Amino acid sequence: MPASGSDPFTLAVDCGGGGIKASVLDAAGTLHAPAVRVPTPYPLPPERLVATIADIAADLPAADRATVGMPGMIRHGVVVATPHYVTRSGPRTAIDPALLAAWAGCDIRAAVEERLGLPTLVLNDAEVHGAGVISGTGVELVLTLGTGLGTALFDGGVLAPHLELSHAPVRWGTTYDAYIGQVERARLGDALWSRRVRRVVDGFRPVFVWDRLYLGGGNARQVTATTLARLGDDVVVVPNQAGIVGGVRAWSLGR
């Protein structure tokens, strides 16, 4: 029998560059335990991430399935590339060639599924975040502002193939990740950093021609009111908690 009776309980895990959060939710997206957060441990080979997820799950209510969102290019549960977990000590530190090799082509879905003994879905973290906030109508773009920039695109509730826009150059060889990531927010302050966010949004607007843009992630709430007022009514700030809540709805995404 499912842990929730007729509907499955979902272990939702949001893996970021600075922290890993998880909770268990019912089919309606209601948390059945307070979200647990631990600092992302480094160095972080795949087996250590799996072990960390299992340790967190052990202290949460029983679940029937798991959803894991993590940074990088994930295709069908296999890691094509991930930006932070290949470094020696976390974001903005040197890449470890051994970790780079360990993560490339890693079937992280199968590894988590085997360790937890649960059916598992692994997606890019922005895609899971988006699953928790989209309306399912029209073209909807999700930008998550955190350690770096996460992106996810939906059309009529259907998830588009993932694009790592965060690695594209925005100017002078600087990537979007570096341009509006947490390091730059801390260096510039919220006001100047928010202007950069506006430049990114204005630059993306003619590329995607969205019906709605959602700004999420841990730093979305740091965008100043002045900047938000200038972004337009088609831009909405959403809670970072969507990275957990989206773990349920992610199972119903078409692709």
UniProtKB/TrEMBL annotation:
Keywords: Transferase. GO terms for molecular function: polyphosphate-glucose phosphotransferase activity. InterPro entries: ATPase_NBD, ROK. Its EC number is 2.7.1.63. Belongs to the ROK (NagC/XylR) family. This is Polyphosphate glucokinase.
